[in-house]
Amino acid sequence: MEREKTDVATKEFTLHDLKRILLAGAGAEEGVDLDGDILDVPFKALGYESLALLETGSLIEREYDISLDDDALTDADTPRALIAVVNTHLTVPA
Amino acid sequence: MTNSVVVTGLGVAAPNGLGTHDFWAATRSGKSGIARVTRFDASSYPAQLAGEVPGFVAEDLLPSRLLPQTDRMTRLALVATDWALADAGVTPEDLDAFDMGVVTASSSGGFEFGQGELQKLWRQGSRYVSAYQSFAWFYAVNSGQISIRNGMKGPSGVIVSDQAGGLDAVAQARRQIRRGTQLIVSGAIDASVCPWGWVAQLTSGRLSTSHEPSRAYLPFDADAAGHVAGEGGAILIMESADAARARGAKIYGEISGYGATIDAKPGSGREPGLRKAVELALAEAGAEPGDVDVVFADAAAVPELDRIEAEAITAVFGPRGVPVTAPKTMTGRLYSGSAPLDLAAALLAMEEGLIPPTVNVELSSEYDLDLVGSQPRAAEVRTALVLARGHGGFNSAVVVRAVD
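Structure tokens for the assembled complex are given below, as produced in the milestone run.
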């Protein structure tokens, strides 16, 4: 379990990290360019439904060793919102 | 307005050929797909041969969005469905979503996916189990994923009756079309050549432990000693004959009769139900035994089950009264995928006028069957009977007929 943990003290969760985890956990919808300007595009429009976001949240929790509550995940309906939620957890002192 | 239900598209994933063309080219020439298991190390298991579908690269054929959430059997089923729809000349977006349904059979679900998640649960903990485990393993997943991918919201479901399920699903699809749904995607694809699936299949006591591909699966042979397990199957596009004709579709044939029975409890002394299933299917098709040009046997390769099947065929058709073939000797038994693959082979046999061979088998003197041997047989095939039996006493029979 420990080997996948990232050094949170020096790391910020970025769009780059989110894209990597989305691709690993849920793949990409045909016709959707994740490299485009997607920060404010709703996840639904990007082809990710609630289960894909549940899987994504689960992968983030494991890699960053944080715990996201279900509401935070369902309320964060765009990449920008989800990145903000994750970073809130990362900046909380251990 | 007729009540007739026809097949207008085929999508095949078989151990001796991926795609309808490769499957039929192999099958008509007697090419087997049975070999040593390659998908995992089977050296510690009693059964070490399988029919594995060759050359399937899901990444080339499906969007990446679907890969983390699908077992191999679902990936095969989704691609086979794409091929079947293309073969039928159907573009789902052009039809009303509620005029299309999906009824497939399944005998084990996505065992390989499930095995991976259980291993993660055991080794790493529940946080490592994929959210997709909630559906990726279960029986109805192929129907569900086909339905979602193609926007099919009409009557749908899954039939679970082991190998007989492949015919039972086609029968259920036919019912739904008769009730008014325009098109149903049916058939079945199973694939559980993984340690968990293997152990589950071994519990039947019916897997051959031979290590020789040409001696391992010998239905109706004096040396019959169980079957080789395989993966794959076929997806069929079924439509009302009226709808198919109205759009000028190519019609492979009509599903004209179906019969299903359950064997009595072992020890009851009552006759096994297979003969009755055949009679019901013929009666519904309005066919006499003499009309049937070929029987695709269930071909269990368990001596007692072979005897029951040979007796049922002889009782209905008379001694050596009808050509009998078992092309599954080239694929192994594919569980729910077997019978739809036999239906596909029957329809292709009609098209070509050729009964595919039964390979490796030397007919036991115990059976009075006209078994088509290692060479294909040229024959006009207008009516074919496909048989399938499932573990636990399921017997199903389907009559397919050429359409003028």
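The radius of gyration of chain A is 13 Å. The CA atoms of residues 45 and 68 of chain A lie 23 Å apart. Further analysis is deferred to the final report.
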